[in-house]
Amino acid sequence: MTTRTLYYAPGACSLAAHIILEESGLSFEGVKLNLAAGDQRAPEYLAINERGRVPALVEDGWVLTECAAILRHVARTVPEKGFWPTDLREQARADEWLGWLAANHHVAYAHVRRPERYTADEDAFPGIRDKAADTYGDLCTMTEVHLSNGGWAVGDRYGVVDAYLMVFWVWASGASLKFDMAERFPAWHAHARRVAERPAVRAVFAREGLTLPA
């Protein structure tokens, strides 16, 4: 039997990997890292993921990092669950979504939370945060349009993109941005509520101490 360990931090992008692993039915151990305390920079963790980021998935000593890669891998491990499309164009659409979210929403949010990564000038931090928040709002508007038809993100089945979208809903509605998602982005908020109806999602939110969409 394959042994799996997922290293995650509550509310980080690892939330999506945590959800899909819980959905998959595969056995795994979750190891929670406290990013504020610097657990990600501890020598023990850097020996697993030298980048010092979450998530990291360890399978029998084999290590995989980057959330999008973990989502694809877990989905392909349990193809019967249908988390990754079989239609080639829907696969391309899923890849498009994962790339869009990782390269845009994630990067904008990093500027909000970690302006020190982008300048050593502390006087510039407020401006970086404010501009990044505006950018994140614009990105949310674009995502709202793509979710406006209701249903799931790709095709007619729940999949990895839906779990990944939940990360960015959590960030948008959280303490750093405080977007009123129901008011500003009703289609995305409705999507998040559909995702939150799933038992695995509820279990992971409880484990990570997160608030479900109201």
Task: Provide an overview of this structure.
With 214 residues, the chain is α+β, with helices and mostly antiparallel strands. It has 9 helices and 4 strands, in the order E-H-E-H-E-E-H-H-H-H-H-H-H. The chain has helices spanning 14-24, 43-46, 67-77, 88-113, 125-146, 160-173, 181-184, 186-196, 199-208; strands at residues 4-8, 29-32, 56-59, 62-65. Strands 2-1-3-4 form a 4-stranded mixed sheet, covered by helices on one side. Helix 1 (14-24) crosses helix 6 and helix 1 packs across helix 9.
In which range does the helix fraction lie? 40-55%
Strand order of the largest sheet: 2-1-3-4
Question: What's the gyration radius in Å?
Answer: 17 Å
How are helices and strands ordered from N to C?
A: EHEHEEHHHHHHH
Helical stretch tally: 9
Main beta sheet: strand number and arrangement?
4 strands, mixed
Low-confidence stretches: none
Residue-averaged pLDDT, rounded?
97
**Class per helix and strand makeup:** alpha+beta
Shape: globular
Record the SSE blueprint:
Elements (H helix, E strand, L loop, with lengths): L3 E5 L5 H11 L4 E4 L10 H4 L9 E4 L2 E4 L1 H11 L10 H26 L11 H22 L13 H14 L7 H4 L1 H11 L2 H10 L6
Helix pairs in contact: 1-3, 1-6, 1-9, 4-5, 4-6, 6-8
Task: Name its key features.
214 residues, alpha+beta, four-stranded mixed beta sheet, 4 strands
